[in-house]
Design goal:
This protein has a domain of 116 residues: Gyrase A, domain 2 (2-Layer Sandwich). Helices cover 37% and strands 16% of the residues. A hairpin with a 4-residue loop joins strand 15 and strand 16. Helix 4 packs parallel to helix 7, helix 11 packs parallel to helix 13 and helix 12 runs antiparallel to helix 13. The longest helix is centred in the N-terminal third of the chain and has 34 residues. Bound molecules: zinc ion (3 copies).
Length: 562
C-alpha cells in the first residue's frame, strides 16, 4: 500500500513536469510563430480570371510571374465561388471576409434599396467626400459591407499598428478588400471622362497624402495614351481565336476589332482615361501606383504584419470588350504576367525574399460569348430581361389590377413592392408563386425559386440551391430568384460581344488560387476549395481571429508547420 502511494506520488510528479514542459513548448512555439510572421500580406485579385488562363497561356508566361507563384508556391487547382451572383463587388468582399453575400451583405455591384426605393452601389456612401476629384465616384466607402475582412482583424490584433492599403482601378476592387479599418483605399478616376487621378474619400483621411498628389501630377497615367500592339508576334498567339471576328467590341473611331489600338487617337471617342482602364495599361498603371505605395507607406518594413490588397481590374474590362477567346485577352494576360514579375521583384527587394506572403485569385471567371458558342453548336442564348420585367408587371396588373408590382430585376432577382401588396391586402406568398410559375414558362429560364424556400434550404456546399442561399441576404435581396440555362446572358447591346458573368456554373465559379511565400508549402491540389477558405487560411497563418462572419476553413495543407 505504501509502495502504491509512493508510485502514485512519483507518477503525479512526472505528469506535472510533463505538463510544465508542454507549456514551455507551447510558449516557445508561439514565440517562434510570432517572430516568423510575414512582414506583409499581399492579396492579389485578377478581375475576371478563369482558371484555364493559367494553363492555356502557361508556355508563354515568363519565369518570374504566374509561373513563379505556381512553381514555388501552392496551387489550388479546383477553387470555386460558392454563391450567386458571381460579380465583382460580392467577389472582392467574399475573398477577404471569408463569407458570402448572405452575411457580408454585398449582394451585387448594385441592388435595389427597399428603403430609399433607388438602386444603390455596393460602395456608395453619400456621407463622405471625394478626394483627388469632384466625381461622385469618390463618394465611396465600405460601410455597406456588414462583416470584417482579415485585414480588419489584423488591424485589431496589432492595435492598429499593422497597416492596410487597398489599390485598384475600380473603387469596389480597392475598398472592399481593405475593409473598414484600412488606412487608405485608392482607385482610379477614369469613369465619366474622369481626371485620370488616383482618388480616395474622406472616409479614410482628410486629404490625399503628398505621394499620391505627386503621383497624380507626374503624368504617368497620361503616358499610357499610346499604341497597344501585341507584346509578341501575333502569329505566335495560337492559344486564342482570330483577331478579327464578330464576337468582339469595336471601339468608337475604329473599323475593326483588331490590333494595333492607338489609345491616343481613340481616347476622345471612348471616355478619355477610360480607354486606359479598358486596355492592359490599366494594370501597368496599377503596378506603378502600388510600388509607390509600398515605398511611401513603408509597407512590410517592420515585424508588425501589414496588408496590401491589389486588384487588377483591366482584365475584366478587356474581357467584357473582347471575350475569353480573343487575342486581346491573351495579350492582356501575357502583359499582366510581366506586371506580376515586376511586383514580385520589387517585393523581394523592398520587403525581402521569403519575408512576405502572396495569394492570387479572382472575383469571378467568365464564359465564351453566346454568339461564339452557338457558332460552334454549343447551346447558348441571350435573354431579354427588360422585356420579361414588363411582361411580368403586365400579367400582375391583369390579375390584381395593380400596376408596377415588381420594382427591380437586378441580379436575376425580382423585388416585389411590399407596400402595395400590403395596402391592397394581397397574399405575398400567392403573388410570389404566381410570378414564379410565369417565369418558368420562359425557355431560357431553367429554375425559379421563391426566397422563403431558398432561405430554408439546407444542403451540402456545391448545390445550386446552396449557392443561391449563400448569395441571398434577407433584407437586401429580391423575392423571386431565376436561373438561366447554362451559357445564357442578359440581352443587351453590350452582351452581343465580349463576355459577361454572374451565374453559378463552373465557367463563372472556377478561378485560380495560388499561395506563395512565407509560411506556404510548395504543392498543388485538385481537392475542391472554396473562395471563402482564403481569409481563414490567412488568419491561421497570422495567428489572428477569423473575420467575424467567416464560414470557410483554413486550408491546412498549404501551410508549413514548424
Ligand atoms: Zn469582376
Ligand atoms: Zn480582336
Ligand atoms: Zn465584369
Amino acid at each position: 500500500m505504501k509502495n502504491l502511494v509512493c508510485l502514485l506520488i512519483i507518477y503525479a510528479f512526472c505528469i506535472s513536469v510533463r505538463a510544465q514542459n508542454n507549456t514551455e513548448n507551447s510558449i516557445s512555439s508561439t514565440q517562434n510563430s510570432q517572430t516568423s510572421k510575414p512582414k506583409l500580406v499581399v492579396g492579389i485579385i485578377v478581375d475576371q480570371m478563369r482558371y484555364d488562363y493559367l494553363t492555356r497561356y502557361y508556355n508563354k508566361y515568363v519565369e518570374g510571374g504566374f509561373k513563379r507563384l505556381i512553381n514555388e508556391g501552392f496551387n489550388c487547382k479546383n477553387n470555386h465561388f460558392n454563391y450567386i451572383p458571381t460579380k465583382t463587388g460580392p467577389g472582392h468582399a467574399s475573398v477577404f471576409t471569408g463569407t458570402t453575400p448572405k452575411y457580408h451583405g454585398i449582394i451585387g455591384n448594385d441592388w435595389y434599396d427597399m428603403k430609399t426605393r433607388e438602386d444603390v452601389n455596393c460602395v456608395q456612401d453619400d456621407s463622405v467626400k471625394p478626394l483627388g476629384t469632384k466625381s461622385d465616384d469618390g463618394k465611396k466607402s465600405p460601410r455597406l459591407m456588414l462583416s470584417t475582412t482579415f485585414a480588419d482583424e489584423n488591424r485589431l490584433f496589432t492595435q492598429m499598428r499593422g497597416k492596410t492599403i487597398g489599390i485598384s482601378v475600380k473603387h469596389r476592387g480597392a475598398i472592399l478588400p481593405a475593409g473598414h479599418t484600412a488606412n487608405a483605399a485608392y482607385w482610379f478616376d477614369y469613369d465619366h471622362n474622369g481626371t485620370g487621378n488616383w482618388m480616395s474619400s474622406t472616409f479614410y483621411m482628410e486629404e490625399l497624402p503628398e505621394w499620391v498628389k505627386e503621383f497624380n501630377k507626374s503624368g504617368i497615367a497620361k503616358s499610357y495614351f499610346k499604341i497597344w500592339d501585341t507584346l509578341y508576334d501575333i502569329e505566335t498567339y495560337t492559344e486564342s481565336g482570330s483577331d478579327e471576328n464578330n464576337f468582339e467590341r469595336i471601339f468608337d473611331g475604329k473599323k475593326t476589332s483588331t490590333f494595333p489600338y492607338d489609345l491616343k487617337a481613340l481616347k476622345s471617342k471612348n471616355g478619355g482615361y477610360e480607354i486606359i482602364a479598358d486596355s492592359p495599361y490599366g494594370n501597368s498603371l496599377t503596378t506603378d501606383f502600388t510600388l509607390k505605395a509600398i515605398d511611401a507607406e513603408a509597407l512590410g518594413q517592420d515585424d508588425i504584419t501589414d496588408v496590401l490588397t491589389v486588384s487588377y481590374s483591366s482584365t475584366d474590362k478587356v474581357g467584357h470588350d473582347f471575350g475569353v477567346n480573343s487575342k486581346e485577352i491573351q495579350d492582356t494576360y501575357l502583359r499582366l504576367d510581366l506586371e506580376l514579375e515586376r511586383l514580385l521583384n520589387a517585393l523581394d527587394q523592398k520587403v525581402g525574399k521569403g519575408e512576405y506572403v502572396v495569394f492570387l485569385t479572382s472575383d469571378h471567371a467568365a464564359p465564351n460569348v453566346p454568339a461564339f458558342l452557338k457558332s460552334n453548336k454549343i447551346p447558348a442564348g441571350l435573354f431579354d430581361v427588360s422585356g420579361m420585367f414588363d411582361e411580368m408587371n403586365r400579367l400582375l396588373k391583369e390579375k390584381y389590377s395593380i400596376s408596377n408590382l415588381i420594382l427591380s430585376r437586378l441580379n436575376n432577382q425580382l423585388v416585389l413592392d411590399r407596400e402595395k401588396i400590403q395596402d391592397n391586402n394581397l397574399d405575398l406568398q400567392e403573388v410570389k408563386t404566381f410570378v414564379a410559375n410565369k417565369l418558368l414558362a420562359y425557355k431560357l429560364i431553367d429554375k425559379v425559386y421563391i426566397t422563403s424556400a431558398i432561405n430554408q434550404f439546407e444542403g451540402p456546399e456545391g448545390y445550386l440551391e446552396t449557392f443561391l442561399a449563400n448569395g441571398h441576404h434577407q433584407k437586401r435581396s429580391g423575392d423571386i430568384l431565376f436561373v438561366y440555362t447554362a451559357r445564357v446572358f442578359k440581352d443587351s447591346e453590350w452582351n452581343k460581344t465580349g463576355t459577361d458573368h454572374g451565374t453559378g456554373f463552373n465557367y463563372d465559379t472556377h478561378v485560380p488560387l495560388l499561395f506563395f511565400g512565407k509560411g506556404i508549402k510548395h504543392g498543388e491540389t485538385l481537392q475542391r476549395t472554396w473562395i471563402t477558405d482564403i481569409a481563414p487560411t490567412i488568419s491561421a497563418l497570422l495567428g489572428i481571429s477569423l473575420p467575424n462572419a467567416a464560414i470557410g476553413n483554413p486550408l491546412e495543407f498549404v501551410l508549413l508547420h514548424d
